[in-house]
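Researcher: Let's continue the batch. This sequence belongs to RN213 ligase, and it's 148 residues. Same format as the previous ones, please.
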Amino acid sequence: MNSPHQPLPTFDEVLLCTPQTSAEQVGLFLRRCLIPCGGGGKIYSMLYADELSYDVSCRAEELFQHLQRYNSTYRLVILCNCEREHSYIPSVFSQYKVHMIPQRPLAEVQRYLQHHYRVAQHSRSAASVFKDNMCVGIVSSKRAGVGK
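Model: Same format as before. Here are the structure tokens for RN213 ligase:
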């Protein structure tokens, strides 16, 4: 948010982990992050890394330990659910753990995201049916099973 006109991360910079995420997917992601190349300066993010299976987590740690010797300037952020902090990945990387508390007010964060996720008025997009031409949105409910 310090650079409001900097683009948001692209698909190759973010890995959204699930229990079905394969070791190959994690390996490709870590190679993009840790092997030095001309596209330096990117910040790579693994989201919900605590959901990776034990086998995939072990292989990811081994690959990370191997590759990080070749690049000391990588930028990797691993986000995990604090309720699953004792799973493999959060435990292995616990010495780097940083508890995050949002440093900006919610309204400022929302304005920042609206700036990046708004589709131009004149473009023909499905986003035109959403509030303020937004191309993403979150639908939630406090009750389960209400069709959302």
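Researcher: Any comment?
Model: The chain has two domains: 1-103, 104-147.
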